[in-house]
């Protein structure tokens, strides 16, 4: 019975190495992150001090939601910080 020819496999070539340099933050990340958190904190404090009349009059307790949204957005940016 005839024997089949062995298959020639191409030589293994490893994938190209990634540049594993240190990751850097964009310059805008930290100031925007801290700014959003501080803005949210100030918004919440002003809302409590003014009995929900300010910073936007007429929406009462929604001012707290806006303040917390700023704080949450700031914390969301911390996930991009290296």
TrEMBL record:
Transmembrane regions listed in the UniProt entry: 28-50, 62-81
Pfam families membership: CrgA
Matching InterPro entries: CrgA
Compartment annotation: Cell membrane
Transmembrane among keywords: yes
Region (Disordered): 1-24
Compositional bias ranges of the Basic residues kind: 1-10
Any GO BP: cell division
Superkingdom, taxonomy of origin: Bacteria
Topology class, membrane: Multi-pass membrane protein
UniProt keyword terms in alphabetical order: Cell cycle, Cell division, Cell membrane, Membrane, Transmembrane, Transmembrane helix
Cited HAMAP family: CrgA
Role noted for this protein: Involved in cell division.
Annotated family: Belongs to the CrgA family.
Designated name of the protein: Cell division protein CrgA
Organism: Cellulomonas chengniuliangii
Taxonomic classification: Bacteria, Bacillati, Actinomycetota, Actinomycetes, Micrococcales
